[in-house]
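In the current project phase, the collection of sequences with tokenised folds has grown. A representative record is quoted in full directly below:
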Amino acid sequence: MKAIAYYQSLPIEHAEALLDLELPAPQPGPRDLLVEVRAISVNPVDTKVRRNVAPDAGQAKVLGWDVAGVVRAVGSEVTLFRPGDRVFYAGAIDRPGANSELHLVDERIVGHMPGSLDFAHAAALPLTSITAWELLFDHLGAREGQGAGQCLLVMGAGGGVGSILVQLARRLTGMTVIGTASRAETQAWVRELGAHHVIDHSQPLLPQLQALGIAQVERVASLTHTDQYFDQLVEALAPRGRLALIDDPAQLDVTQLKRKSLSLHWEFMYTRSLFQTADMIEQHRLLERVGQLIDAAVLRTTLGEHFGRIDAANLRRAHALLESGKARGKIVLEGF
């Protein structure tokens, strides 16, 4: 089968940072689906793994953790899907990625693709939807239909996770949603997605919040550069507030949280599959719910740019754009 992979960690400008290869087709295990990959999207985790995780000597490492495709075969214990089903999912970090014509995935982390979307638009959704849902409802403690009078601050609201998180918070809760973005085009995008207010994270945060009549916020979702903004976020949070993050800050002084009794939460969407947790199937359920919300026009896909077919050259372009920090929404590739 065709696949895009790498043999050594290299800067994305290097011609061998990602390569077009032919690899053996995989065979499904008991709970696996064998999926024909139709479209993929690219996430920061792809670039982080490529830069920092060297494959075993002589082994090709395949990236890619956002998929829309068609089930071609199922394992002996599969009960949720059957061949011919259109599916979308984000996969597992400890298994080969989906930048390949065929891919294996455990059925418990897969959802039926929204019927109203094509493969490209569906591929933009899984990883960011799972991350945003778990962050908002599991870690920040938001509840559907509740939260009136409370505020959620979303740092980096124009990126992939932020683009879904803003929608979920605005459509499913009563909270006031404040997104941050520093460029005019991303500010417009965040407003379009439903944020009540947009402020500029390149400027001091608290004066901008106060200018909106917001003295403090009860919840913060920090999606990028948490160490850079940490002091300001502690200042902006109300006593007993919650701070959730998804990035990898080099250092945080968590003792600053004590005076306000603030809680700190980390969201990593691969935890359930990595540890085969007892509630692993919750990712199937939440993807099913996201699909229903998409079909009901409550949520919208966050496809930002379509980079053409799935090959090494186009994936190198996608990685380069993500590493520049200038991507808006999700970058999608489609077909081999």
